């Protein structure tokens, strides 16, 4: 049986004893034990910090068991080497038993070991007694240390001063091409070498393999092209590379600044169909540079001139869903907007409206960019505060960067003849930022886009140390003198008419009316695993309030596929009690109640086939009986429906209107239209479905995803995997499904075969449909690995072949 990280403790893996020591430097950690040495390469980020904290904890605990003097080379403390230099990309196991060590580290280090051509020269943060600034963020530190942090922030001007650093920001949609020319005219266009490079690519790879499996050789090709084109007058270290399908962000820093970079994290979020597919979305890197927290985002938003609302939706989803984990797992993750400086680059895809091609080209010919810019969708959306509130974009004095004939400077001569547009943009948010240049680079002709480029506080260590010590002395005097207390804005919250996948939020305000700062936290009630029900969240769930200060907490109710079934059946209600605890103070009780409107989303196929009327026309008692009925005819004397009427409405709408719709089931719809479609299905009003074809298609996928029991029930899952290559056996399994499940499966398969007859128009093929639908119809009761995904796709492909019954 394989050993996992849950089976062993760190002490069982690494021989930690009194003569054990760890030295970290250059992103290498050295573990010393007696005469043996193990050298491990660790990546940036919180995973590494958690691992080294655990090493420190285990070593400290073991060293406390004895009083004798250690014979090892490091006496009585954990030494950290803070020099920065080059490092290789190899793991070098020295001890015989290190298989378990390396397996454990891979849990922390997936992104680093997947690329051998990585030479990250920047050290990760080290949590040791000598690193006071970082140690305050560790989970074991509580109220007192938060008091210190609060006072440090209030006195920041005493120990910080501004210093100029230059960021080179570049964005390039490469249209799936490989590098065919040097990137030097783009990346080395500045006279002086920049301090940092943040380079974003979009459409790195347009192949189906990249889309389905997020794997592409073009990552290495473009990374190599970038590294060869960086400014020749400086040496740079690669800090981070992050990619989601074709969206890639590369972050370089001058080697002399490497030691001042810490807390590096990378995250991705897809905004494609169902909010998951990574053909559109964003990748981001956050890091701490000296005393500033900086976040760089590279995004690729929805295409097509008329889809500006979907671009707005993509932006909002990226801002809300892209979150960086913190070292303390009890702390809420950091969102993009929680940083001092935000740099946003990418193919934002906003177009020029209300002008035809000839008018746009005429203004470009006159270089009247000011007039042309007044028709720019992004400018208008920012002016309306629909997106990028608080962001700044420099003056645009270059011609649109899209769309050109590949390999030339000629505007699009294809049949579609796209209107030129400034799709590729660079914006920022934060203080003390001055743009030195903002330009496109016409010399590069690889893609149908042109690349775009655009040309922070530093800690004074001695002043910081003095301020830190003075704050500690003051807190020592204040501690234990007073009991903290707060005033709550209200203690009862009512959420009316909660709907499936619709956010409902109310604000709880806390005012510190006591004599001392206080720390609050929502705590678990007896015999409950978390502080609240799964449909409820409090943000933030814990925090710190200075004396006389206040904080707003968002109480948010959101019902998703995991919580909807119990609420639909009436087994669960919108009711909960939150316990707000003050450290060294009392507890406050907050009541949350509401009513949930039942939905076909999260209801079972069996239940929906029993309901001939819209679900919200049924009484709670009837719904409870339907859910608990042992067979299909137990409640309704009438013959049950062959398939749920809601499913029929969506498929019938698509059959009549969308067989030839381009990119159907690949392009997401609008969230606002999904809400209208959901309400129509649940209430029967209006008679026909509202919204675009793409919104109806996504609503269908969300319906299948929300089924408590998938179309192919969980009990058949393993059997389907075992016979996936045998078409006749696959058909036999489907014939054994419960009648309503079998009807739904055959109905959907027949509809998808009709779609494939129109593949020349809708651009679908068997692989695309199998990838999208197999994971919904044939879901795993546990987490699905890649091999299982491919087997489910092979299983479902048999039913997409023309002529299948």
From TrEMBL:
CDD domains reported for this sequence? INPP5c_INPP5B, RhoGAP_OCRL1
Which intervals of the chain form a coiled coil? 298-325
Record localization: Cytoplasmic vesicle, Phagosome membrane; Early endosome membrane
Domain Rho-GAP, first and last residues per copy: 621-805
Gene Ontology terms: cellular component = cytosol; early endosome membrane; phagocytic vesicle membrane
Q: Keywords in UniProt for this one?
A: Coiled coil, Cytoplasmic vesicle, Endosome, Hydrolase, Lipid metabolism, Membrane
Instruction: Give the Enzyme Commission number.
Output: 3.1.3.36
Organism domain of life: Eukaryota
The Gene Ontology biological process annotation of the record reads: cilium assembly; Kupffer's vesicle development; melanosome transport; phosphatidylinositol dephosphorylation; pronephric duct morphogenesis; response to epinephrine; signal transduction
Single GO molecular-function term? inositol-1,4,5-trisphosphate 5-phosphatase activity
What family is this protein classified in?
Answer: Belongs to the inositol 1,4,5-trisphosphate 5-phosphatase type II family.
Q: Which PANTHER family match?
A: INOSITOL 5-PHOSPHATASE, TYPE II INOSITOL 1,4,5-TRISPHOSPHATE 5-PHOSPHATASE
How is this protein named in the record? phosphoinositide 5-phosphatase
Protein species of origin: Sander lucioperca
Q: What is the lineage of its organism?
A: Eukaryota, Metazoa, Chordata, Craniata, Vertebrata
């Amino acid at each position: 049986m394989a050993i996992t990280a849950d089976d062993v403790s760190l002490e069982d893996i690494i021989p930690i004893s009194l003569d054990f020591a760890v030295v970290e430097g250059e992103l290498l950690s050295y573990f010393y034990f007696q005469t043996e040495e193990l050298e491990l390469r660790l990546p940036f980020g919180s995973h590494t910090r958690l691992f080294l904290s655990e090493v420190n904890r285990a070593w400290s605990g073991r060293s406390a068991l004895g009083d004798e003097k250690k014979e090892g080379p490091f006496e009585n403390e954990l030494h950290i080497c803070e020099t920065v230099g080059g490092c290789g990309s190899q793991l070098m196991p020295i001890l015989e038993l290190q298989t378990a060590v390396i397996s454990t580290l891979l849990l922390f280090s997936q992104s680093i070991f997947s690329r051998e051509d990585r030479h990250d020269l920047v050290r990760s943060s080290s949590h040791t007694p000598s690193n006071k600034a970082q140690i305050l963020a560790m989970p074991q530190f509580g109220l007192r240390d938060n008091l210190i942090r609060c006072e440090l922030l209030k006195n920041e001007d005493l120990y910080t001063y501004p210093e100029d650093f230059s960021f080179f920001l570049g964005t390039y949609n490469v249209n799936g091409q490989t590098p065919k020319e040097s990137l030097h005219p783009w990346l080395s266009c500045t006279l002086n070498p920049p301090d940092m490079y943040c380079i974003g690519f979009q459409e790195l790879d347009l192949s189906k393999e990249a889309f389905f499996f997020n794997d592409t050789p073009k990552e290495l090709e473009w990374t190599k092209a970038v590294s060869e084109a960086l400014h020749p007058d400086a040496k740079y270290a690669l800090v981070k590379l992050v990619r989601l399908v074709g969206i890639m962000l590369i972050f370089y820093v001058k080697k002399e600044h490497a030691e001042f970079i810490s807390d590096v994290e990378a995250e991705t979020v897809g905004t494609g169909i169902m909010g998951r597919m990574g053909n559109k979305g964003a990748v981001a890197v956050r890091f701490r540079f000296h005393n500033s927290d900086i976040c760089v985002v590279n995004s690729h938003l929805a295409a097509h001139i008329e889809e500006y609302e979907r671009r707005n939706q993509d932006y909002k989803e990226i801002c809300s869903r892209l979150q960086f984990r913190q070292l303390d797992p009890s702390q809420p993750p950091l969102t993009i907007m929680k940083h001092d400086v935000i740099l946003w680059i990418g193919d934002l895809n906003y177009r020029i409206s209300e002008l035809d091609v000839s008018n746009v080209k005429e203004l470009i010919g006159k270089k009247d960019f000011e007039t042309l810019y007044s028709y720019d969708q992004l400018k208008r959306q920012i002016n309306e505060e629909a997106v990028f509130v608080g962001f700044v974009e420099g003056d645009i004095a270059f011609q649109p960067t899209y769309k050109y004939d590949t390999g030339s400077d000629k505007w699009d001569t294809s049949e579609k003849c796209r209107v030129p547009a400034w799709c590729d943009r660079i914006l920022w948010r934060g203080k003390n930022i001055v743009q030195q240049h903002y330009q496109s680079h016409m010399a590069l002709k690889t893609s149908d886009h042109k690349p775009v480029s655009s040309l922070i506080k530093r800690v004074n260590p001695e002043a910081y140390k003095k301020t830190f010590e003075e704050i500690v002395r003051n807190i020592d005097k204040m501690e234990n003198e007073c009991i903290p207390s707060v005033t709550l804005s209200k203690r009862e919250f009512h959420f009316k008419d909660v709907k499936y996948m619709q956010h409902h939020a109310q604000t709880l305000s806390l005012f510190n009316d006591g004599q001392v700062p206080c720390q609050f936290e929502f705590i678990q009630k007896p015999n409950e695993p978390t502080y609240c029900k799964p449909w409820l969240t409090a943000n933030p769930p814990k925090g710190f309030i200075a004396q006389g200060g206040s904080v707003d907490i968002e109480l948010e109710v959101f019902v998703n596929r995991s919580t909807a079934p119990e609420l639909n059946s009436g087994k669960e209600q919108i009711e909960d009690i939150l316990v707000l605890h003050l450290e060294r103070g009392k507890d406050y009780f907050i009541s949350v109640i509401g009513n949930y409107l039942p939905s076909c989303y999260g209801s079972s196929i069996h239940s929906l086939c029993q309901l001939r009327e819209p679900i919200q026309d049924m009484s709670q008692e009837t719904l409870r009986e339907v859910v608990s009925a042992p067979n299909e005819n137990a409640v309704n004397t009438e013959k049950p429906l062959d398939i749920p009427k809601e499913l029929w409405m969506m498929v019938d709408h698509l059959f009549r209107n969308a067989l030839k719709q381009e990119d159907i089931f690949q392009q997401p719809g609008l969230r606002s239209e999904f809400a209208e479609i959901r309400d129509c299905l649940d209430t029967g009003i209006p008679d026909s479905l509202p919204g675009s074809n793409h919104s109806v298609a996504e609503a269908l996928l969300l319906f299948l995803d929300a089924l408590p029991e998938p179309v192919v029930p969980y009990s058949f899952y393993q059997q389907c995997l075992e016979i996936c290559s045998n078409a006749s056996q696959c058909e036999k399994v489907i014939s054994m499904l419960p009648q309503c499940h079998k009807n739904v499966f055959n109905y959907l398969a027949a509809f998808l075969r009709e779609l494939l007859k129109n593949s020349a128009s809708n651009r679908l093929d068997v692989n695309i449909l199998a990838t999208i639908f197999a994971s919904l119809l044939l879901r795993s009761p546990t987490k699905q690995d890649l091999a299982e995904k491919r087997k489910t796709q092979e299983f479902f492909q048999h039913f997409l072949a023309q002529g299948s019954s």
